[in-house]
């Protein structure tokens, strides 16, 4: 689909992207995760042809691939209607006449605004504006949709609706680049992801591979006097949520040991569960959790 | 480009503030200043004062369109619309033209309304209408061209307003829109010849009075055209920096 090769970008003397490379296959959702200032937005602007001055290369296949860009800001004309906005961006993407009007009606339906199409955008809620923000980028049914934090500041229902839209885009074989601060969004929506920090890709792979590669399984146990002392000495254990998190490569064996120890010594176990590895833990382990103010 | 023109026209039609700035305020000022400066005068003297004030205040108030232009561009920049448009196949050249043309309509309508007001209320002569039309078109191009440059260069709305005041009021003062150039010191007279306001005012006055010759028209038209073109070129050159400052 496209390949980003050795992209470097400077603002004055400051390097904002340093030798960024990755490959995105057709029809997948590719996540970009990183703290503020990691270079995600700059990278997306380069891919969307908004920034032209950079070092490196982006190879699109096919070369005439169409791109729809959903900016982080709500980039809409608020004094006109939702229909006017869709028609405006549709025209900029080359649609005309009946085809343009048909596509506008399709998109209004897709973003759940058919009944509100004739209303001015300034009367919309945050979630409606976010959906229209996406709608304007898909008027020309682009091959690649670039979304820069499309769910910032919206209610759970609108977020859920946008997730469903993205799932539909994937089913329709659109390729998606999705930047977000929300790790659970990336885990839920994306097939592959790149962790970015200080202008560099520190890790990128399929999400299941990343979890396999980096995440160490653990179990959570809670209860009065629930852990034998020797276990606390032999394993990496941390206290959390009023219980203990035991990191181990053999989580099922460990659970068995905890239960056996509990039965033998009349210990009281309230909760015992397998903890699923999280992308956020891998991200913090790779980039650190210190503030980046 | 047509889509940008259409959208900009639609937004401006809803802007009641523009109606105030572009038409009501100039009319109020023209009436006020004519009543002040013609008090106690009569005959030819009064006619000369009116013949200077009507085109002079028309030219001065045209430049205030720069405020609306800068506001529109800065809004596009800060809402992320500029970035979004830059990701479409529309070229920067077409974007700038698309934003420019609607303001040309507004300024041209402004000239027509203000001169027609002068004709209806004060019976100012419009003896060479064809020349007046040509001067109006070139003046429209100049004012909006300079407005375009300013819109792409300034960083904030306040900067846009400040520069517009300097250009409109400074240009009016030095360009002979308030006080005849003949009574100014020699240095200021030289400076006034460097300003588009001077050439526009002189040309309008002559064409209104019917004393403009075809060859005499070329010089002001060429000068006005150069200012407008210069504005467009500056805007085009400054566009990448404008885009770099854009959100989104």
TrEMBL record, chain A:
Gene3D superfamilies the UniProt entry points to: P-loop containing nucleotide triphosphate hydrolases
PANTHER family found in the cross-reference section: LINEARMYCIN RESISTANCE ATP-BINDING PROTEIN LNRL
InterPro entries, alphabetized: AAA+_ATPase, ABC_transporter-like_ATP-bd, ABC_transporter-like_CS, P-loop_NTPase
Residues covered by the ABC transporter domain: 2-223
Protein name according to UniProt: ABC-type transport system ATP-binding protein
Keywords for the protein's UniProt record, in alphabetical order: ATP-binding, Nucleotide-binding
SUPFAM superfamilies in UniProt: P-loop containing nucleoside triphosphate hydrolases
Keyword ATP-binding: yes
UniProtKB/TrEMBL annotation, chain B:
UniProt keyword Transmembrane helix, yes or no: yes
GO annotations of cellular component type: ATP-binding cassette (ABC) transporter complex
InterPro entries assigned: ABC-2_transporter, ABC2_TM, ABC2_TM_bact-type, ABC_2_transport
Recorded GO MF terms: ABC-type transporter activity
Entry keywords, A to Z: Cell membrane, Membrane, Transmembrane, Transmembrane helix, Transport
Residue intervals of the ABC transmembrane type-2 domain: 17-242
UniProt topology in membrane: Multi-pass membrane protein
Pfam family, one: ABC2_membrane
Parts of the chain that traverse the membrane: 18-37, 49-67, 100-118, 130-154, 161-179, 217-239
Subcellular location: Cell membrane; Membrane
Family: Belongs to the ABC-2 integral membrane protein family.
PANTHER family: DOXORUBICIN RESISTANCE ABC TRANSPORTER PERMEASE PROTEIN DRRC-RELATED
Protein name (database record): Transport permease protein
